[in-house]
Specification:
Number of strands of chain A: 12
Chains: A alpha/beta (about 350), B mainly alpha (about 290), C alpha/beta (about 290)
CATH superfamily of chain C: P-loop containing nucleotide triphosphate hydrolases
Membrane topology (chain C): Peripheral membrane protein
Largest sheet of chain A: 8 strands, mixed
CATH architecture of chain A: 3-Layer(aba) Sandwich
Keywords (chain C): ATP-binding, Nucleotide-binding, Transport
Largest interface: A-C, 44 and 43 residues
CATH superfamily of chain A: P-loop containing nucleotide triphosphate hydrolases
Organism (chain C): Skermanella stibiiresistens SB22
Protein name (chain C): ABC transporter ATP-binding protein
Radius of gyration of chain A: 22 Å
Radius of gyration of chain C: 21 Å
Largest sheet of chain C: 6 strands, mixed
Oligomer: heterotrimer
GO cellular component, one term (chain C): plasma membrane
Chain lengths: ~350, ~290, ~290
């Protein structure tokens, strides 16, 4: 092997894509490893996940409790703490001006990245805003250092940002408890995006909100994305939100990605039996057709079933599903699915 | 339960050291039953002998063997602590659970009694009791009085837990399963507060032993029963330090300090085990 | 009066207010304002109360379960005023006919108790079953109605079961006394989507096969449409619209009902050339 070849081997040339994606996750594995009073447990919350998120795109992740979706985004955001550890794989961001391999960085650098280039919007908005200070102070506390401009200019920038998001700058003078739940969540989104990050991670940001408010918050998220041309990784268990917001969608089950594709394709033509069930079982107003529930229970990630993790609940499970993990199979048009039945063509 | 104990012993250093120290103290107290001299008797050995092969820890100016005297003192002190803790736990559990679960008027009445006990100054009350009772003041009576005064703080703690348990959905489920308030309190709520009771027991023992030592040193208790406190009282009476009989004071002080440290370590270790945050991180949990 | 005319549940002009704030700045909050409806005994139905947070729907549920008295108005169950049900015997009789299902299946079972205990207690307190074999038999029969069996549930702790299973066990428990009415407060909002339909279907079966009336309290219009016979829509304590479920939801009249229906995100993806629902909304507003 020549030195040149070796060099290529160690630093493979970028793939022949027009630009590298905003986020590249390769073979990511993150396990909860606990050792407490003699009992060692390993919970494979994120097990071999590979995905790409393009620039200027809203990518959704859907999954139920114990699907590992929260652990996945914590890992992608670099916000993991023991006992959750990254066991393998890489997380690469491309923020345009800067490319980052998240888990080769020192922890301090990772934290710095999280404020400047990454925004993280969580479900509980109260934990972000200081309940004893006016909202203005929260903006100063979180964002002032990262903006690198004098205070008057900073406050002007904050007000402009709020106006762009159709929020009255008057909210800056309020205390968090004076705002309604929906308004608070909007303020938190404004706060998370004031540094104009290239990548936004949203973890169930509308789950605790009433339906009327939920819609306006989602509208705001969509607008922020349009305006800033940012990429958003949006996680929720609510399929209706995915249908209305995301461009592409990944379905997680028991720590693995089971299907991925354009949201529209996934809803029109779901291939994995689990996705199929999630979409078909949704009740709709104006449609009282009887629907079938899915039997069984989500698996215990500390002791997942062998083979395809969905097989104990799968209506079309075959023998191979019980022993072999189905590989991710590309179906064209960016649609990927991990199911033996699809690979072997037993289902259409 | 045994398994938890074994795991704690193996993986929690505080717990291991605490257990070791407390076992030594308990071992010493058990030895008191094999004492060659009755612990109350005086002038059974030569007085003021420094530690030697014959008298390991020396002898007192009252002609007692410090080692055997101390084993009896430790036994009584330890029993005193256990008695106070046990009685006061029963009171605080009952008051706390009933007050927290019943709420309303019951809660208000019980808590006003409770708060009275929290704010009355303990030490003067105990001294007052001594002056009233004088010679009829015995070890058991003091334990009863201390227990009657030492439950209030923990009852409030238990009440706050019981109050939050009352609003949990499972309590409603119990009510609609037809369970009586007594069944709900003893079968459903008690297991939740037991861990708190365990750790407060150890702290309560420390508190009552400390109080007993203080009262005894000042002579405000039954000084004829050998306890760590009364040993120190007699040592002071005989001006042991001035007379150079340092071993009369040093050994009991070391023993009682070890007991404090041992109980404290056990309490912290149990607290850590009980604390929901550390329990959560232990369970890890997939989300 | 013939049996067919008796009202199972008669809610007449019920209001409930709370006082908040200090002595001088007391404010009255009307959680429920003048709500009336009647469920008939003859025809079991699923009666849905729709509302968002703060609509007073949970307060109303608590009053129906006799956990709280109305400030004004009255609630009668089977012709009996709930305010007169105070003695233990009367309360037990009431609970044998009205049973609740709670929101969070992980909260509605004590994590430290085995789940079958609740079934056993309910069987013992509300049925003739006394011996272990009899209560087991009663539990098993109830569990089979919800698609489980005692063998799957016996000696299990809540954390060993899924949310869907726990919610079904909760329903089985509520069925043991043979109730006429089940009050379910957001029973599926904490249950995973893949398990939700099964539970909602179960409510239909209870109505059709066991002839149990169900008050289904929810914020979710889609499941309400799927299973309800009649609905009321509540906002800030007041009923803004009521009637046949399909009719109201297909064609809401009150501005709030219309807003609520429009806010529900459709789980259908729009066509390529069509903007997504949330963008249509914004476009409409900016014009």
């Amino acid at each position: 092997m020549t030195l040149h070849q070796l060099n290529n081997h160690l630093n493979p040339a970028p793939e022949a894509l027009p630009a590298s994606p905003a986020l590249r996750v390769d073979g990511l594995k993150a396990y909860y490893q606990t050792r407490w009073f003699g009992i060692t447990r390993e919970v494979r919350a994120v097990d071999d996940i590979t995905l790409r998120i393009e620039h200027d795109e809203i990518y959704g992740i859907a999954g139920e409790s114990s699907s590992g979706k929260s652990s996945l985004i914590k890992t992608i955001a670099g916000a993991i703490r023991p006992p959750l550890n990254v066991v393998g794989g890489t997380v690469n961001f491309d923020f345009g001006t800067r490319k980052v391999d998240l888990y080769t960085l020192k922890p301090e650098e990772r934290t710095a990245i999280r404020w400047k280039h990454l925004a993280y919007i969580m479900q509980g908005s109260m934990s972000v805003l200081n309940p004893l200070r006016r909202v203005r102070q929260s903006f100063i506390d979180f964002a002032f250092r990262h903006m690198g401009m004098p205070m008057p200019a900073f406050l002007k920038a904050v007000e402009d940002h709020l106006l762009r998001l159709h929020l009255q700058p008057g909210v800056l003078d309020s205390y968090p408890h004076e705002l309604s739940g929906g308004m608070r969540q909007r303020v938190v989104i404004a706060l998370a995006t004031v540094c104009r990050p290239g990548f936004i991670i949203a973890d169930e940001p509308t789950t605790a909100l009433d339906v009327v408010v939920q819609k306006s918050v989602l509208t705001m998220i969509r607008e922020v994305q349009r305006e800033m041309r940012a990429s958003i990784l949006f996680v929720t268990h609510d399929m209706a939100v995915h249908a209305n917001l995301t461009d592409r969608l990944g379905i997680m089950y028991a720590g693995r990605l089971v299907e991925e594709g354009r949201t529209r394709d996934l809803f029109r033509n779901p291939r994995h039996p689990y996705t199929l069930h999630l979409i078909r079982s949704l009740p709709r107003i104006g449609d009282a057709e009887p629907r079938q529930g899915l039997e069984g229970t989500p698996p215990n990630l500390a002791d997942p079933p062998p083979g395809c993790r969905f097989h104990p609940r799968c209506p079309i499970a075959m023998d191979v599903c019980r022993v072999m993990v189905p590989p991710m199979q590309a179906l064209g048009g960016g649609h990927r699915v991990a199911c033996h039945a699809v690979t072997e063509g037993t289902v259409q | 339960m045994l398994k938890i104990f074994r795991d704690l012993l193996r993986f929690n250093l505080e717990f291991a050291i605490g257990t070791l120290i407390v076992s030594i103290i308990v071992g010493l107290s058990v030895l008191s039953f094999f004492s060659p001299y009755p612990p109350e008797d005086i002038y059974v050995v030569a007085p003021d002998v420094p530690p030697s092969w014959e008298y390991w820890l020396g002898t007192t100016s009252r002609g007692q063997d410090v080692f055997w005297q101390m084993t009896a003192a430790l036994r009584n002190t330890l029993l005193f602590g256990i008695a106070v803790a046990a009685i006061s736990r029963v009171i605080s559990l009952t008051i706390g659970l009933v007050s927290g679960y019943m709420g309303g008027m019951t809660d208000r009445v019980l808590m006003s009694i409770n708060d009275t006990f929290i704010i009355i100054p303990l030490f003067p009350i105990l001294v007052l009791f001594y002056f009233v009772m004088r010679d009829s003041m015995s070890w058991a009576l003091l334990a009863l009085i201390m227990a009657a005064l030492g439950w209030a703080y923990d009852a409030r703690l238990i009440r706050s837990v019981a109050m939050s348990l009352r609003t949990r959905e499972f309590t409603s489920q119990c009510i609609f399963s037809g369970m009586s308030p007594r069944q709900i309190m003893t079968r459903e709520h008690l297991p939740y507060v037991l861990p708190i009771v365990f750790s407060t027991t150890l702290n309560n023992m420390n508190w009552s032993i400390g109080m007993e030592v203080t009262l005894s040193v000042l002579g405000f208790t039954d000084i004829n029963t050998p306890t760590i406190g009364s040993m120190l009282y007699w040592a002071n009476q005989h001006t042991a330090l001035v007379a150079g009989v340092w071993w009369w004071i040093a050994w009991p002080v070391i023993a009682v300090m070890l007991l404090f440290i041992g109980l404290y370590l056990l309490a912290t270790a149990l607290n850590e085990y009980i604390d929901p945050r550390s329990r959560l991180s232990r369970m890890g949990g997939a989300t | 009066m013939s049996g067919a005319d008796t009202a199972l549940l008669d809610v007449r002009g019920v209001s409930r207010s709370f006082w908040t704030g200090g002595l001088l700045s007391r404010r009255r909050i009307d959680a429920v304002k003048d709500v009336s409806f009647t469920l008939t005994d003859a025809r079991p139905e699923i009666f849905t109360i729709i509302g968002e947070s703060g609509s007073g729907k949970s307060t109303l549920a608590r009053m129906i379960l006799n956990g709280m008295n109305p400030t004004s108005g009255s609630i009668a169950f089977g012709g009996e005023e709930l305010t007169t049900i105070r003695k233990t015997r009367d309360r037990m009789r009431f609970m044998s006919r009205v049973q609740p299902i709670f929101q969070n299946p992980f909260e509605s079972f004590n994590p430290l108790s085995k789940v079958d205990r609740y079934l056993t207690m309910t069987a013992r307190n509300f049925t003739e079953a006394r011996s272990r074999a009899e209560t087991d038999d009663a539990s098993d029969r109830a569990l089979r109605k919800v698609g489980l069996s005692l063998a799957e549930v016996k000696d299990r702790f809540p954390h060993e079961l899924s949310g869907g299973q726990l919610q079904r066990i909760a329903i089985a428990r509520a069925l043991i006394p043979g109730p006429r009415l089940i009050v379910a407060d957001e029973p599926v909002s904490m249950v995973d989507a893949s398990l939700r339909v099964a539970i909602v279907n179960l409510f239909k079966d209870l109505r059709d096969e066991l002839k149990v009336s169900i008050i289904y309290i929810t914020h979710d219009l889609a499941t309400a449409y799927y299973i309800s016979d009649r609905i009321i829509i509540m906002r800030k304590g007041e009923v803004v619209e009521s009637g046949d479920a399909r009719a109201v939801l297909d064609n809401p009249q009150h501005p709030y009902s219309i807003l609520l229906k429009d806010s529900v995100l459709s789980p259908d993806v729009p066509d390529d050339d069509e903007p997504k629902t949330i963008e249509r909304d914004r476009a409409a507003r900016s014009h």
